[in-house]
Specification:
Number of helices: 11
Distance between the termini: 90 Å
Radius of gyration: 29 Å
Largest sheet: 2 strands, antiparallel
Strand order of the largest sheet: 1-2
Length: about 375
């Protein structure tokens, strides 16, 4: 013994490092110093799930997977388009017969007064350009909430089954003192009811449109991780839990659970805390939303709005707005030029060419 180090393992086997040492070595490997940039620790909001660990079927984690709400809405969209096509074909012959009689009976002015819906949609022209004020960084609040609640509506309407948990059951954990109807688990809520519920929470808590998109991400992540279905018996508590978590993660000024108890007068703080704890456990405490996933949900919500005629509000392009857009485009162009020049300066030889290669155009 003494200064001799003894080991009680077989000569053929190699001693294994403790788990803490393995993690420390892995951390040292990942944070080695580079030649020119120094140590770099990636921010948690910028971390992307590795391709080998990401689940292709989970859109809330992987940017390349299609969102669940958009796929569930396609069934109704196809049926609606098919019905419109059949009605259009069947009524085309009748339209040709009565079109001449209608033209003879009414004047052009009265005809425009009968069908103003045909002219209600705004279109850009040479003199006027219509744009909406919704962007991926600053979405329109009212339109975004409408799209998110419509996605929730399709989740409920086209659900596969009624898998749920007691913590989200409205009969066991009511949100108000009003008696829950007997058919609460069989009657699907309308889109207006879902929108009114979410709109009330967002208005009272003064939440942003980005928080609504993150709410939908958490909702679909919960359904995927916990293998649940959002149905008439649990949709209010699931949506409330997703909004509660999104408001704390996304907004700088977090909303306390007691604040929601003041909005929903009959719910207790203990119930809110328990629901939040279960929600986090079912999410496996994965509350990170990559920028690519957020952008995918935003544009899929725009597609959902187009399929259901929920147009974002259009306003004429004013001189002030045009100057701002021009200034932003010039700033982006200057940054691109600076990056291009820096990349060309770093090019040392043809064997080690870094950056953008340009060639002069040959005009004949």
């Amino acid at each position: 013994m003494g200064n001799t180090v003894s080991c009680c393992v077989s000569p053929r086997g190699s001693p294994k490092l403790p788990r803490q040492v393995e993690r420390q070595e892995e951390y040292q490997i990942n944070t080695d110093l580079s030649d020119d940039t120094g140590p770099y620790l990636q921010h948690i909001s910028d971390r992307e799930v590795p391709d080998d660990l990401a689940l292709e079927s989970n859109p809330s984690d992987h940017a390349q997977a299609s969102t669940i709400f958009l796929s569930k809405s396609q069934t109704d969209v196809r049926d609606r388009r098919k019905s419109n096509h059949i009605n259009h074909v069947s009524g085309f012959g009748l339209t040709l017969v009565i079109c001449w009689n209608v033209f003879l009976c009414i004047t052009c002015c009265s005809f425009l007064q009968v069908s103003p819906g045909l002219l209600s949609k705004k279109y850009s022209s040479c003199s006027t350009i219509f744009i909406d004020d919704s962007t991926v960084s600053q979405p329109n609040l009212k339109s975004t909430i409408k799209c998110v609640t419509l996605a929730i509506y399709y989740h409920i309407k086209n659900r596969d089954s009624d898998r749920s948990l007691d913590i989200f059951d409205e009969k066991m954990h009511p949100l108000s003192r009003e008696q829950v109807p007997e058919d609460y688990c069989r009657t699907d809520p309308e889109h207006k009811l879902i929108y009114r519920f979410v709109r009330t929470l967002f208005s009272a808590a003064q939440l942003t449109a980005e928080c609504a998109i993150v709410t939908l991400v958490y909702l679909e992540r919960l359904l995927t991780y916990a293998e649940l279905d959002i149905c008439p018996s649990n949709w209010k508590r699931i949506v409330l839990g997703a909004i509660l978590l999104a408001s704390k993660v996304w907004d700088d000024q977090a909303v306390w659970n007691v604040d929601y108890c003041q909005i929903l007068k009959d719910i207790t703080v203990e119930d809110m805390n328990e629901m939040e704890r279960h929600f986090l456990e079912l999410l496996q405490f994965n509350i990170n939303v990559p920028a690519s996933v957020y952008a995918k949900y935003y544009f899929d919500l725009r597609s959902l709005a187009d399929d259901n005629n929920l147009n974002f509000p259009l306003e004429p392009l004013s001189n002030e707005r045009a100057q701002k857009l021009e200034a932003i485009s010039r700033l982006c162009e200057d940054k691109y030029k600076d990056l291009s020049k820096a990349a060309m300066r770093r090019s040392l030889s043809a064997d080690n060419l870094i950056g953008i290669r340009r060639s002069n155009a040959v005009l004949s």
